[in-house]
Amino acid sequence: MKKESLTIKKNGSHEIEIKKSRFICTMVRIQSEDQAKQLIEQVTKENSKANHNCYAYMLGDDDHIQRESDNGEPSGTAGVPILEVLKKNELHNVLAVVTRYFGGIKLGAGGLIRAYSNATSTTIDQLGIVKLVNKQQLTLTIDYNQFDKLKYFLENEAIPIEDTQYTDQIQVVIAVSDDHFNALISAITNLLSDQFTYDKGPYKIFEVPYSREARQQDER
C-alpha cells in the first residue's frame, strides 16, 4: 500500500516580475522521467524566446529521483533553489519549470537564487497542496431506521458517503484510513448499539486539502 504523500492540488503556472525580468513557473504532476522530459521540452518550445528554462523535479515514493538544471544561469542559482523549494514543501512526483525572460537588469547570484525560489514558492501558494491519503472502502449495512442517525454522525465527523444502496436494508459506502479504522468502528458500534454489519473493500487514494498550518501541527 502506497504511503501518504503531498503534491500540488492542480497543474498550472504563475508569473512574478523582479527588476523587469519575468519569471514564469509551470508546475505539473508527473509519474515518470519520460513524462518530465517531455513536459520540459514542451515548456521550452512554448517559450523558445525566453533566456532560460530552468527546472527541477522529484520522483518516486521516497524521492529517489531528483533532477535539476540551471539551463545557462550561473551554477547553483536556479535548478537547486527550485528543487529546494519542492523538498521544503515535501512535494512528491512534481515538476517545476521556471522560465525567465531577462529584463536587462542583472540580479547577481543571490538575487537569482531568491528569484527562482520565490517563483516556485508563490506558484505552490497559487496552486495549493493536497495530501494523497490511502483509504479503504467500507460498506456498512444498516436498517432503514438507523440511516438518519448514521448520516448525522458521518456528517459531524466529516466522513463523506461515497455511495448508498437501498434493498431490504441500506448499504452505506464510506472510506476510512487504517489509522482511524478501529476508532470509527467502535464509535459506530456504540452509536447503533452493535446493530449493523460491515464489509471491507479495496483501497483507494483520496486527495485531502492540506495547508502550511496543518503541516506545522503535524510537526508538533
From TrEMBL:
Domain UPF0029 as annotated: residue spans: 140-195
NCBIfam families per UniProt: IMPACT_YIGZ (TIGR00257)
Single Gene Ontology BP annotation: regulation of translational initiation
Name under which the protein is recorded: IMPACT family member YigZ
Assigned protein family: Belongs to the IMPACT family.
Domain Impact N-terminal: residue ranges: 19-123
Gene Ontology CC annotations of this record: cytoplasm
Pfam name, any one: DUF1949
InterPro entries from the UniProt entry: EFG_III/V, Impact, Impact_N, Impact_N_sf, Impact_YigZ-like, Ribosomal_Su5_D2-typ_SF, UPF0029_Impact_C, UPF0029_Impact_CS
The organism's place on the tree of life at top rank: Bacteria
